[in-house]
Amino acid sequence: MTDAVDLIDIDSLLSPAEIALRASVRSFVDSTIRPNIAHWYEDAVFPLDIVPEMAKLGLLGMHLKGYGCAGRSAVDYGLAALELEAGDSGLRTFVSVQGSLAMSAIHKHGSEEQKNEWLPRLASGEAIGCFGLTEPTAGSDPAAMKTFARRDGSGPDADWIIDGSKRWIGLASVAQVAVIWAQTEDGVRGFVIPTGTPGFTATAIEPKLSMRASIQCDIELSGVRLPAGAALPGAKGLRGPFECLNEARYGIIWGAMGAARDSYQTALDYSKERLQFDKPLAGYQLTQEKLVNMALEISKGTLLALHLGRLKDAGRLSPQQISVGKLNNCREAIAICREARTILGGNGITLDYSPLRHANNLESVRTYEGTDEVHALILGQHITGIPAFR
């Protein structure tokens, strides 16, 4: 990074291998995503043809070990998420849904048969996965889910039959496998469902003002019949999906700073070139104050992400610390992107420049995997010892 972006020399805290990994992902973003993202966003297209390229870089399930996964560190994964989201939040979200949600659920909670069947295919990009937790009336309160799985018989080999609906499920209409969470008589369970199973229907949600180069769907489950072995044996209760959500939330901590950095860099470059009243915008005090405030928050947010990544690699990252990062970095990133747009003036509302696209995308990032309010309540309970969710 240049000194204009990395004010406090965060690069000095990274190893040569980490810097090399970051450079490879940044090169992919520069060559494949940046030249195309404006028209992908405008046309609401998710570019499936780049999935094999992501797989070759080891980005799919990159922090998981075995089964064809790259087995990289949490910091490596975070650096990759940052660079991908500097390109676009929707494309970083693909890596998150695939790796931190669908693959993570199978890796953490699946049987060996489930792992061997799906993880190598998902890591190679041969298959795409999705993760169905949120419902039309159960977003921040997944315990209120109505999707229900019942046994068709009394023996341990009895089939499962699932009925219900899910909403805002990334990639569902292009996925080959879905991890679906449902209530059962024994509490919440997860199920691995090939999307070609009769009764499973995924429909893309359109139109959208955010995450346009990504896919979010409604899922209907109508009498979906599954064998007994479709249930994730290691996941019982809401702890199962929450462990996966924490993996995705961790990636967001880094990714949001990528969107912020790209918006800041765009505004900085523009301000040096755009002349008003016979001098560059960068030469005015008000513009410099905006740029300084953006650079400070990016430095702090990236340092926070790195610290949390080191804790994760050491096995010491707690859920409330993830909430600190997700709440702070999403909140600051969206403010940075909006402020960057002001420096661009009227030109900033076009797709020639990235800040408003990033800001619009971050409206989704700020909402999914826990809203600001949910993370504030998680931290409020941690600080006071008093739960205030209800």
UniProtKB/TrEMBL annotation:
GO MF annotations, alphabetized: fatty-acyl-CoA binding; flavin adenine dinucleotide binding; glutaryl-CoA dehydrogenase activity
Stretches assigned to the Acyl-CoA dehydrogenase/oxidase C-terminal domain: 236-383
InterPro entries, alphabetized: Acyl-CoA_DH_CS (IPR006089), Acyl-CoA_Oxase/DH_mid-dom (IPR006091), Acyl-CoA_Oxase/DH_mid-dom_sf (IPR046373), AcylCo_DH-like_C (IPR036250), AcylCo_DH/oxidase_C (IPR009075), AcylCoA_DH/ox_N (IPR013786), AcylCoA_DH/ox_N_sf (IPR037069), AcylCoA_DH/oxidase_NM_dom_sf (IPR009100)
Cofactor(s) needed by this chain: FAD
Keyword Zinc-finger: no
Acyl-CoA dehydrogenase/oxidase N-terminal domain mapped to chain residues: 17-126
Class of enzymatic activity (EC top level): oxidoreductase
GO biological process per UniProt: fatty acid beta-oxidation using acyl-CoA dehydrogenase; fatty-acyl-CoA biosynthetic process
Residues annotated as domain Acyl-CoA oxidase/dehydrogenase middle: 130-223
Pathway assigned in UniProt: Amino-acid metabolism; tryptophan metabolism; Amino-acid metabolism; lysine degradation
Record key words, sorted: FAD, Flavoprotein, Oxidoreductase, Transit peptide
Domain of life: Bacteria
SUPFAM superfamilies xrefs: Acyl-CoA dehydrogenase C-terminal domain-like, Acyl-CoA dehydrogenase NM domain-like
Family recorded in the similarity comment: Belongs to the acyl-CoA dehydrogenase family.
Protein name, per record: glutaryl-CoA dehydrogenase (ETF)
Organism: Arthrobacter terrae
